[in-house]
Amino acid sequence: MAVYNFDEIIDRNGTNCLKVDALQERYGSSDLIPLWVADMDFKAPPAVIDAIIKRAQHGIFGYTRPSQEYHDSIRNWLDKHHDWQIKQEWTSFIPGIVKGIGFVVSCFTDRNDKIIIQPPVYHPFRIIPTLQHREVIDNELILKENRYYMDLEGLKKKIALGAKILILCNPHNPGGRVWTKQELIDLAEICYDNNVLVISDEIHADLAHKGHKHIPFATVSDKAAMNSITFMAPSKTFNIAGIVSSFSVIPNQKIRDKFHAYLESFELEEGYIFAYTATQAAYQHGEEWLVQAKEYIWGNIQFVDNYLKENIPQIKAMIPDASYLIWLDCRDLNLSQPQLEDLFVNKAKLALNTGTMFGKGGEGFMRLNVGSPRSILAKALAQLKDAVNNKLQK
Ligand SMILES: Cc1ncc(COP(=O)(O)O)c(C=O)c1O
Predict the structure, then answer these.
(1) Is 98 in the pocket of ligand 1 (CB under 6 A)?
(2) How much is the pLDDT for 12?
């Protein structure tokens, strides 16, 4: 069995990657450890790299269609990993999940229509509808003992304002929650009964850690299946976000026909050579890599949690059920958000995502990406410890 080396430090400088090469632009300095945008500093599974090289060596990159194996690889993956038996016709290629959200907003709502999100949450959920002149309504998550819960009573009140769509982050980013079946059933019931279409963004689905099982929203009840559009992708799972390959799954024919017709009217359902190649290779041959990657990530999460407890008790990690993102509760430092950002960026020399980016409830938090070699995290945490100690001594 192959053993993958996640300790390897790979220089990403000069590859036009957002995480490293945009530091100066985004944070005002390139001399920072990049622990922000959600991709990992690990090489993709060798099977993916080999498949891309093999296809590239052919040398002709003409118009391309998805193979039957590509479709089968998606169906088999969802069946095996998420107990979801889908039909091929339920799916469509989409060029990215954020774009997919934009397409749904555009296809199913009109200007000034209301869209519900549950912050703190992945910021494009707010940005994309806002840019399309829709009104975003916040149904803030409830924070209880360092864990988030959906406010379903609050949701009923917000829905009464006349919303058309709810965007669900399943599993949740930045809180890392894998929602329970009952939570999803309750959500589905409220949304179905009130004619609110659910977009379920399941990009982090494959990254649930031991003891947690991701549940696709559409599988929890008929009401969920008949009233949802699910987005999934191999991008976070296998660290291939730059290849841009995602897909939608829509069991309800009426919703599907409308969405597919929208996609076809711009030819958006047509994928790309390397998207098809990488997706198929990842789903067919990437499983063992993923098992080892998740073990390594889980080790990183434990490492960060223990380090904070022992050395920086003012910062508390919210242990994610899924993903390589840790929501850090920094409220005990008693700093304003600009002061917190100054501490991380200018004093500790670290680039994390600031909590307020994720909307309401994000004040006092920072989001840490632990998809990096552990030695880099160790260095980052030591810098953070020094910065916090210096701050406290002043
Ligand atoms: C919840 C969530 N959805 C979507 C994305 C981005 O997806 P895509 O690159 O396919 O637009 C991310 C990336 O961080 C994410 O966390």
Answers:
(1) yes
(2) 97
Kindly report, residue by residue over 29-81, the tens digit of the pLDDT: 999 999 999 999 999 999 999 999 999 999 999 999 999 999 999 999 999 99
Measured in Å, residue 279 CA sits from the centre of ligand 1 at 16
In a domain, 50, yes or no: no
Q: Are 150 and 202 in contact (CB under 8 A)?
A: no
Is the pLDDT assigned to residue 394 strictly greater than 80? Answer: no
Q: Alpha-carbon distance 171 to 359, whole Å?
A: 17
Ligand 1 mutation pick, 236, 239, 268, max ligand atoms within 8 A of CB? 236
Residues 345 and 332 in one domain: yes
Residues 6+ apart with CB under 8 A from 375: 7, 9
* pLDDT one-digit tens code per residue, 74-107: 999 999 999 999 999 999 999 999 999 999 999 9
Residues 278 and 292 in one domain: no
Identify the domain containing residue 33 by its residue range.
18-45+287-389
Structure confidence by residue, pLDDT tens digits, 230-275:
999 999 999 999 999 999 999 999 999 999 999 999 999 999 999 9
Let me know whether 309 and 267 are in one domain.
Answer: no
- 394 CA from centroid of ligand 1 (Å): 40
Distance CA 246, CA 342 (A): 36
Answer with the one of 220, 252, 285 that is the final residue of a domain: 285
My answer on whether 89 and 181 are in the same domain is yes
Tell me the backbone φ, ψ of residue 142, rounded to 5 degrees.
-100, 130
* Type of residue found at 361: G
203 CB near ligand 1 (under 6 Å): yes
Q: Which amino acid is at 60?
A: I
Instruction: Tell me whether residue 166 is in a domain.
Output: yes
Measured in Å, residue 237 CA sits from the centre of ligand 1 at 11
Our answer on whether the CB atom of 351 is closer than 6 Å to any ligand 1 atom is no
CA of 342 to the centre of ligand 1 (A): 26
